Amino acid sequence: MLAALLRAAQAGPAVETQKWSYSKKSNGTDAVAVVKSISLIWDTRIGADMTVARDPTTTWDLLAEKAANRGSVLQSSGTAWAAATAPGAGSIWDKAVVGARFDSGQQSSKISISIMKSVPLRRNDLLALQIDADVAKKQMPLFRLLRHVTRDFEIHHSAKVTFTRIGTSFVVGETISTTDDKWLRYFGAEQTLSNAITISGVIRETAQGSTDMSLTAGFKRSW
Predict the structure, then answer these.
(1) Residues 202, 186: Cα–Cα separation, whole Å
(2) How far apart are CA 36 and CA 59, in angstroms?
(3) For residue 42, what are the contacts with CB-CB under 8 A and spacing of at least 6?
(4) Is 91 in a helix, a strand, or coil?
(5) Integer Cα distance of 46 and 17 in angstroms
(6) Residue-wise burial string across 10-20, b where 16 or more C-beta atoms lie within 10 A, e elsewhere
(7) φ, ψ for residue 52 (rounded to 5)?
(8) How do beta strands 211-219 and 18-24 pair?
(9) Which residues pair with 188 in a beta bridge?
(10) Closest to 175 measured CA to CA, from 187, 191, 189, 162
């Protein structure tokens, strides 16, 4: 099936509302993506992101592929997703985005929702509020021969406030998962120094009761 999708992507889009993209990765696999709009009322879209691995044609090709990928053979995989953007609800929020994603290779799924609200301030400043919540679930093989699996989950929600004029953001949130028996909170801040450089710091609670701190810098430039 993935080979048929690859041929369709290389042939070009079938309809105007269905967009295909194709690119070749450095490891020899093909990346194929398709997006289709199914409703204009809520700007609802569905799509799939696929990695298509070509079967080695000779023993030499098989050995070369294993040597380049630490002894493993590349496998085809795919991720299906859906997203819908709901219109604003008066003065409560400007828009809400609901999304779902399923990864067949990792046997994982994720459902998320984001609510955005912008509030004008003095001196041409804008306060942007974003509330995120998501639930992720992953199946892990426990006893392969007996076909038993364990189901891991993680729940996360956060609130982010951004002062657009000065480029400063603050975020607070908490997470819980099957490996932790309590909610773990965190607080972070990010400062944009220029159009390409950002500095961010995060303070997190750990399951052992201690505090973990990190400071990172980022650089992003498009040509």
Answers:
(1) 7
(2) 39
(3) 84, 85, 86, 87
(4) coil
(5) 11
(6) eeeeeeeeeeb
(7) -105, 120
(8) unpaired
(9) 171, 202
(10) 187
Find where tokens 């042939």 sit.
Answer: 11
Reported pTM: 0.67
Span 65-105, pLDDT tens digits: 566 666 666 677 788 999 999 888 777 889 999 999 998 77
223: exposed, middle or buried (Cβ count in 10 Å: 0-12, 13-18, 19+) = exposed
Residue 149: pLDDT band with limits 50, 70, 90:
low
| Burial class of residue 86 in the structure, from the number of CB atoms within 10 Å of its CB (0-12 exposed, 13-18 middle, 19+ buried) | middle
d(CA 28, CA 61): 11
User: Do 94 and 105 meet the contact criterion of CB atoms below 8 Å apart?
Assistant: no
Residue 115's CB is within 10 A of a number of other CB atoms, namely 20
Token reading at 159: 């609130």
- Lookup result for tokens 């985005």: 97
